[in-house]
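Researcher: Please translate sequence to structure tokens.
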Amino acid sequence: MARLAKIATARQAQLQDGRRLGFAQYGDPEGAPIFIFHDLWGNRSLRHPDDSILARLGVRLIGVDRPGYGASTRKPDRSLMDVVDDVMLLSKALKLERFAVLGFSAGGPYALACAYRFPQIVTRCAAVAPLPPLDHALGFQALHPFYGRLFQLASGNKSLFRLLMRAFIWFDAQREPEQFIRELGGSLSYADQKVLSNINLFKSRRDSWEEIRRGGSNLLVDEVASLIRPWGFHLQSIRIPVDIWWGEADAFCSPFVGQRMASLIPNARLRLEAQAGHFMLFSHWQAILQQLVAS
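Model: Translation complete:
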């Protein structure tokens, strides 16, 4: 496992294996620390656009770019646990004794992995519309049809999947990044389209996607590959408190997944919201944070 050499700048850490680790901090510098794991189309900046919420709740939010994303060096064939180990090294460099974790969508498995691996350090975990385990056909079937087929292709024909991702990034680079965000929102529920109508949030998602395009298709291939492999732990082995947040209007992944995951984690609570969609991280931002920092 790589060791953290030093914090090089306010936004980047240097690992002894030569890799860089991009991160960003928001909110109260002296507040309760929460590491947030971004989604497939995100980066270290993932958060609600109103930073006054963080300050008001006394939250120190720390976002980390996974390998290949943003300011982080790519690490081919990485696993969920590789990412978790990087975050733990960063927490030590930041002199954090304990912290909570928050994972959204594709970032959910990473937050759960962190909760499993470091139960003496992680105080609480929130998984918001998390991607389910994809080592079984039922996991793919629970996803939006397009993403279910895409992830299945990645698990069955990696060479073709890599070519498709390369072609997709090339094609999308010929148009404005706003177009992809509009199309993504259009494929989801009305509740999610309403969330994306916040112009500051829309711009943030656009900027994240533009950064991903600059990074190239390999980072998406690496990310999907890490998610479709066995995670390296069982949900039943997580011992710390976990909140599973899900919107009944989630068109990306069936709410049944949330019910199933919550039933498997011993100390989990499902928070099912009738008027929320996949982007409930933003529509329920304050409530999610409040639960994470509650004593």
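Researcher: Any highlights?
Model: The longest strand covers residues 20-27.
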